[in-house]
Model the fold of this input.
Amino acid sequence: MSHYHAVVWIDHAEAHVMHISPDDVESSIVHPAKGHQKLHHKRGNDKGGTVGSGKTAEDQHFYHEVVEALKGATEILVVGPANAKLNLIKHIHSHDQAMSDKVIGVETVDHPTDAQLVAYARKYFVAADRMRP
Done:
């Protein structure tokens, strides 16, 4: 079935991708290949200094897999609780300009159930459609 809209809820541990039509929803979950990695600070000298940023590198393969799961949608809403949604947007802008033009919104959303996510996205898309000529 062809779906016009898609929503992705993403954090650093997983992404829920939903392709939405008026009477159907196709969903998938994408996980990072290495699983969620916690941030660790390296201890430096005896005075407690830190070495390095203490951040793990972003998993570009994870973001690529999320982009692949979004293929086919004409309009995309990206949501999530923290920075992963912004990292996904950066990845899309850097690696898939055609998809970049399909992202119509980025919103902060905590941890909804899949049903709540679909309801939120449908309401968002209806409002977005009303704003267009």
Observations:
- The first strand starts at residue 5 and ends at 10.
- The chain has one domain: 1-20+59-133.
